[in-house]
Write the structure tokens for this entry.
Amino acid sequence: MTELPDSRIKYRHLRFLVECVRTGTLAEAAGRTGVTPSAASKTLKELEDIVGERLVERNRRGLTLTPAGEVLHRYASASLTALHHGVDLIAKARSELRASVLVGALPNVAAQVMPAAVTTFKERMPQVPVRMAAGMNRQLMTQLRNGELDFVVGRLAEPDEMMGLHFERLYFERFALVARPGHPLEGVTEFTEENLGRFTMILPSYGTVIRPEIDRFMIGLGISHFPDVMETLSPDFSKAFVRRTDALWLVPYGVVRTDLLEGRLRELDIDLSSTGGPVGISTLAEAGLSAQSRVFASCVREAAAQYASEVSQPN
């Protein structure tokens, strides 16, 4: 089977052929493509050698395409037009994307702070789209470093993960130990490994920024381990599971605040005020925010300040 020559034909070959037809002379085509006349002649000869046909005839009037040249020029011109159109579409999509606000938020932030922030932002800049990614802290920080997000509203990451990033603290968020209404531990004020160990304990997975804080707190209570642990990062699953079982859930307060206020869950009377950590805005230290992202960050600050005042979070 004869090997197709397509892989040897380069963009510069096709562009030069199209410019030869457009300008009518080898010299002008060379100027339009930014090469010397000798390099232009070499490019044309390379293309003719690949195709195996003479493509251009030179005469007093300039350049004339041969029948083979006519065929190749027709498809080369269409190919370059399609290619330029594709590149333009990508550039347009990128421009439209950058005209949006690209923000990442932890689930607790997405539930408690972002609705108010987006509402305020839409009042100030109604024509600017907001694209919000909700996920875990490490995942969002990776997206931030890759330039996929303008900023992230989440917990302060470990020091080695904050290299090259700037963190602006907004508020402190504690944990809550929650259960279904009517749970056997509702009303209990003394918690031990024995009474907590009777129930399934839902905890965030190892590797999350909040898990070490939880483990340290429990060790401080003299609780070295739980016999029955369910690890998950899904708030939806955890809420549903806790409401239908006697499972306990140790979770950032913001994730369950609405459920507590509306009576779907109960917070047990265990002092978790020393747990948790700062929540704030992380940005790339070397990159400035766009005008619309700065406006949205300001809306996030206002919403976070209102949220912190409502829940009287400790400092």
Remarks:
- Residues 80 and 86 are 10 Å apart (CA to CA).
- The domain at 6-97 is CATH 1.10.10.10 (Arc Repressor Mutant, subunit A).
- The chain has a mean pLDDT of 84.
- Residues 67-98 form the longest helix (32 residues).
